[in-house]
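We give the chain.
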Amino acid sequence: MGTTFLLALVSIVCLGNTSRAEKELLQESYRAEVTKLAENPAIQSAFQHIQEIDAASVEELITLTQIPAPPFQEAERGKAYRKLLEGTGADQISTDSVGNVIAIRKGTKGDRVIVLSAHLDTVFPEGTDVTVKREKDRLLAPGIADDTRGLILVLNVLRAMNYAKIRTEADVWFVATVGEEGLGDLRGVKHLFKEHGTKISGFITVDGGGDSGMTSSAIGSRRYRVTFSGPGGHSWAAFGTVNPAHALGRAIDLFTKEAIDYTGSGERTSFNVGRIGGGTSVNSIPFESWMEIDMRSVSAERLKGIDEILHSTVNQALSEMNQERKRGDELKVSLDLVGDRPSGQIPVSASLVQRSMAAITYFGLEPKFDTGSTDANIPISMGIPGIRIGGGGRSGGSHSLSEWWSNDNGHLGIQRTLLTVVAEAGLASEP
């Protein structure tokens, strides 16, 4: 899902400038609205169908998980998912130019679009063993919870709506996106909003596990590949030639010292050098050394500030190293932006947030707000209501080879999502 979620209390301390009443209370009007909707015979029929297809959908989860979907290689899983969608009775199914799979269920008015999405890709590289194993009540495999379970949830919401003949006022789009993880940089959802953003009035992404968690506060991030390059040479014969690896080390040291001070106060901001590389042998001066760095914050201003620290310290390291060279050409450096996820917040008073809270409480659960970096970042940054919710059941080990999911009342997550979608899309009046 692009980040580890930071669970907070239902008081929603992460949501910034909302009032105390908004932080602590679900508005009674939304609670009553969603409760009434849940008692509708068509909704109850859909709930029942979700339970009836639960066991079969677990087998689909296993099958889909075992189709590898490394970053930038989601096409085969996308094809398999499209085939599953084709059996649901959607009005229109397509795969767009970047690989997003989209099923459209038309509303009676069609003046708005509500999107329910999950992502196709995983963080795991090509060649990773994605065979699903069973341990007691758990299914273990890389990517099974993040986010293959989300894909199954989206599919079952569509199936249940069609089974129960639920009609909504707004169009509902069921979307499987590409490029949510890592250097995919949200490319699928960015493309979706570039092409259709003026139509979309609400966005729900299913990412990770759980029944009561919800994200409406998006962590923004900026990611760079920093590359120092120089002439290189033999470690003895060319000694005195400026060394890109030494410059990289100095840049990391300078940046870390300033960044630690910067992140020690103010709104939470983080940084991480996640990968370094370069060089050809132990006795060769590298002609190139590089690092990949990730910086995050809920605050756009704070993110800009740490970005500026990175640029200034990298350039300082370049200058200092070039001044110390004894021979050869000067070093050069490039800072290539490889990831840019915008931040933002949706107020608790927004109808989508309220209806999601009401749906969670309808099933006897307590809403728990968190912050995260997901596909929802894009609509949230645009001021379009967007949330992240969990896929139901229990899960753990996200982004690890021991990732797992357990079908512990997993149907509740699907029922809760259907209730939220229909509430936000509007249940159409009978003719």
About this structure: Residues 220-341 form a domain with the Alpha-Beta Plaits fold (CATH 3.30.70.360). The chain has twelve helices and 20 strands. Confidence is low (pLDDT under 50) at residues 3-23.
